Amino acid sequence: MAIEELGMNILTYGFNTDQHCNGYVRVTIVDGEIWIRIYDDAKQFNLREYLKKDENLSAVILDKILSKLDYQHNAGVNTLVLKV
Known about the structure:
The protein is an alpha+beta fold. Helix content is 35%, strand content 36%. The protein has helices spanning 2-14, 47-53, 57-65; strands spanning 23-30, 33-40, 68-74, 77-83. The chain has a 4-stranded antiparallel sheet with strand order 1-2-4-3, with no helix packed on it.
């Protein structure tokens, strides 16, 4: 569910309809903890800042299910690191 919510936010705010962008998701389980990494080359979009100021349902859901959210933008690539 977290991946779906995040994907919709990235598609809504990060992509323009006239540009080609790439993205991929990597899920790992380490010592029983689920880690999700989402990479994309859309425009810079800091989900952490968005979640702080938005009160929509997806922001509330993500805030409840994520125990860690980290964001970086390097060399044109957005990287979200999440712990569920």
